[in-house]
Write a structure and sequence with these properties.
Radius of gyration: 27 Å
Oligomer: single chain
Shape: globular
Largest sheet: 8 strands, mixed
Number of strands: 24
Strand order of the largest sheet: 21-18-17-14-13-12-23-24
Helix content: 25-40%
Length: about 775
């Protein structure tokens, strides 16, 4: 499933502050612009043309494509518009679009297209309501194309009617598969489209404007967007204060609410059931069967946020369509307890595992899991604050005190954070030298160096990554790979976000707008590009691991390369640094040993069967409209998944014994069995200035200490009655990639014990003062 970047200007963190005022009672449906708003539009386009990193790639001739992309934002699956609508709008507005927007600040096509969409949707809803009164054939051999994004809009009303006839049968079967009676299913579908029409009636002028201008911004790259005044106000609040909610970053895709990111340490993260790309289908405030369940199709993101946010300690019930289940009828109700999530205090955590080498001798392997690159807020006066580099340094000291043989740095699902922290953290493992190069549009290159000669950990090192390791994570993994300091393992590639964005309030651009006592929108746009010390960009291709592990994530179309208008990969001159990638005589035996285990160990067979099942289901372009066939498929899928759950439990019995280390305020007592309450931080795409310096003193050294918890043994034997128990949290999970990363590291330690490596053991620092 491809995740489109459109509507990024409408994202929101769950949840906004409790106490924010209610939405306006009377939405602005004028669909006209004031002179000040037209001026702001002109300034916005000029800013992109003059300051965007990719400004030379966009010409006036590209603007006509905005018409179609904007129509698809409203109607992604080509269900409501007719092909004649697209032809008419493109013919009418293509020639003068650039001139009207840039010279006059005129975006009237946006309003005209939206009104047509609303009209088509209202007419279709009326047709649906009438059709639901009739009977439906659920015994045919017909197939339905669920994802119509690559298909054209229907050419005639009769063709559209047939598409909707099939879609209604599809939706009825979806509900019947989820234990609804036929009449209940029809009534639920009726309410769904009644709500869709009601939600459309709430769309306001500034939201239409925001979406249209974001389409223009995304001619340049997928991370550029326009914030309306309301969205920018929310964005600013999120950057400065703590939130009460579930801790998730949301977006809209195809009129559905999609979880973009789970905020580290928030309630959703600690619960561990919600995942990126899951779709939130409905929300309820109670698990009482009589309680109202509100479907979210077509709902504005702000209203979705209002439904999900609430008082600390209260519960919200989310109906989820899991991303890792290709069956569109799959539903799961997840209960989350709302809590306070601070934006500046996610924490690293660590553990020591006892991993046997090929002779059976146990080796102590340290693991440090880092959810994000967090750091102090320069404007805060709340006393000592945590930082990623400071916390990792503390954990390294604690782990080394226990005599570890090697260390795994786990950066999976780490979406980035402060660039400064990425540099400091890399410096914990190298003596000194460049970490990242930052290039501007003009070609000038700034090299950011680790200036500290001290090496906190100089022993064998592995870095574990995934397709959700992005930005700052890619800088750290790529730099350590460049230096030959670590072996990198994980998915086939990391996310590939190698760009820097800034956020600029529009009124600051124009003296006249600054004088007006009105709010203004803002532009988020790309200004720089990241490059590793070798000169290779992290953009698009990301970091390619030295050892690739089989992953279900690789079966999904996720990552920068799948985003439209993503900036290209390129390279610049290498900068001088004291290091080289791993030699083949070291990497080859590590890779060969890993491939041998991947071919023989039961856990990899288990993983490959899961991947094969998911891939086969995902590759199916149609679904049956025969109820009996769908029931049989559902039951077969359920049997497979239950068998996999049981096998997962059995494999967990083979988990290595480990001792966990948590970071906690030193004045608090620690329950050795408690789950650490991490808290989330800002993602890099949400920070205007990624190069904000942190305090010179060691960050967080006075605020935290590492506390070892009780040694944990693998799960005891389980029986069939326990098969429905939830997956354990943290290091108690079956984590096949982490297990293999530790084995590879043990292999490297064994290789380093050979006499000819006496001068420098593989995967160690060239000069070390820290071990």
């Amino acid at each position: 499933m491809t995740l489109t970047p459109r509507l990024l200007g409408l994202f929101a963190l769950i949840s906004l502050l409790v106490g924010l005022g209610p939405l306006a009672a009377y939405p602005d449906r004028s669909f006209t612009l004031t002179p000040a708003e037209s001026k702001e539009i002109r300034n916005f386009v000029q800013l992109l043309e003059q300051a965007h990193y990719n400004r030379e790639a966009v010409a006036s001739s590209d603007y006509p494509s905005v018409i179609r992309s904007y129509m698809e934002d409203w109607d992604a699956h080509h269900l409501f518009f007719l092909d004649s609508d697209a032809e008419a709008f493109i013919a009418k507005h293509s020639d003068g679009l650039y001139w009207n927007v840039t010279t006059l600040g005129d975006i009237s096509p946006a309003f005209e297209i939206f009104k047509r969409y609303e009209e088509r949707a209202q007419n279709r809803a009326s047709w649906i309501f009438d059709r639901l009164e009739g009977e439906f054939n659920l015994e045919s051999a017909d197939e339905f194309v669920v994802d119509r994004r690559d298909l054209e809009w229907p050419t005639t009303t009769s063709e559209a009617d047939q598409i909707w006839e099939d879609r209604l049968r599809f939706e009825i079967i979806q509900e019947l598969l989820n234990e609804q009676e036929l009449d209940e299913a029809k009534e639920k579908i009726r309410k769904r489209y009644e709500r869709m029409i009601k939600n459309l009636a709430d769309i306001e002028t500034h939201e239409v404007t925001e979406l249209f201008l974001s389409n223009i911004a995304q001619l340049y790259d997928p991370h550029s967007t326009y914030f309306s005044a309301d969205t920018y106000e929310d964005f600013d609040i999120q950057m400065r204060l703590q939130l009460v909610g579930i801790g998730a970053l949301l977006g809209l895709e195809d009129d559905e609410c999609v979880i973009r990111e789970i905020i580290p340490g928030g309630p959703a993260d600690l619960d561990s059931r919600l995942k990126p790309n899951d779709r939130i289908i409905a929300v309820s405030q109670s698990d009482d069967p009589e309680a109202e369940t509100v479907e979210l199709i077509g709902m504005k993101l702000r209203r979705i946020v209002d439904l999900i946010r609430g008082e600390k300690g209260t519960d919200v019930f989310l109906t989820i369509q899991p991303a890792d289940t290709p069956d569109a009828s799959a539903r799961e109700v997840v209960r989350i307890t709302r809590d306070v999530v601070n934006l500046d205090s996610a924490r690293a955590r660590g553990a020591i595992f006892e991993v046997p080498d090929d002779s059976g001798t146990p080796r102590s392997v340290g693991v440090i899991s880092l959810p994000a690159f967090y750091g102090p807020n320069p404007g805060s006066t709340d006393g000592p604050q945590n930082s990623a580099s400071g916390d990792v340094a503390i954990l390294i000291e604690q782990l080394q005190a226990q005599g570890i043989d090697g260390l795994v740095l786990d950066l999976r699902d780490n979406g980035g954070g402060l660039l400064s922290e990425a540099i400091y953290l890399t410096g914990l493992f190298i003596e000194q030298g460049p970490v990242v190069q930052v290039r501007s549009y003009y070609g000038d290159v700034k090299v950011d160096n680790d200036e500290d000669k001290a090496v906190r950990y100089g022993g064998p090192l592995a870095v574990l990554v995934s397709k959700y390791s992005a930005s700052a994570s890619e800088i750290v993994a790529g730099a350590l790979q460049n230096y030959g300091r670590a072996v990198v393992l994980g998915d086939s590639h990391t996310h590939g976000k190698g760009t820097v964005q800034t956020v600029y309030e529009m009124k600051k651009l124009d003296p006249k707008l600054r004088m007006l006592d009105t709010r203004s929108g803002a532009a988020k746009f790309t200004i720089q590009k990241f490059y590793l010390p070798s000169g290779s960009s992290t953009q698009l291709n990301g970091v390619v691991p030295d050892i690739v592990l089989p992953s279900i994530d690789d079966a999904m179309e996720s990552g920068e390369r799948y985003l439209p208008q993503a900036l290209v990969w390129d390279e610049i001159e290498t900068t001088e640094f004291d290091g080289t990638p791993l030699d083949s005589h070291i990497l080859a035996p590590l890779r060969e040993a890993s491939l041998a285990r991947q071919a023989t160990l039961p856990e990899f067979d288990f993983l490959q069967r899961n991947i094969a099942w998911f891939t086969a289901r995902q590759d199916e372009e149609t679904v049956s409209l025969n109820l009996d066939a769908r029931i049989a498929r559902r039951d077969a899928d359920k049997s497979f998944q239950e068998a996999m759950k049981l096998e997962r439990k059995m494999l967990r019995e083979q988990n290595y014994t480990y001792t966990e280390f948590l970071l906690t305020p030193e004045e608090e007592e620690v329950d050795a069995t408690a789950v650490e309450e991490n808290q989330p931080i800002k993602n890099e795409t949400e920070i205007a200035d990624l190069t904000v310096p942190v305090a010179e003193e060691e960050p967080g050294s006075e605020a935290v200490e590492a506390v070892a918890v009780a040694e944990v043994e693998p799960d005891a034997a389980i029986d069939d009655e326990e098969a429905e128990e939830p997956e354990p949290e943290g290091y108690a999970q079956l984590d096949i990639h982490l297990r293999e990363a530790m084995r590879v590291l043990v292999d490297a330690v064994k290789i380093g014990e050979q006499p000819h490596f006496a001068e420098r053991v593989p995967l160690t620092a060239r000069s070390s003062t820290g071990g």
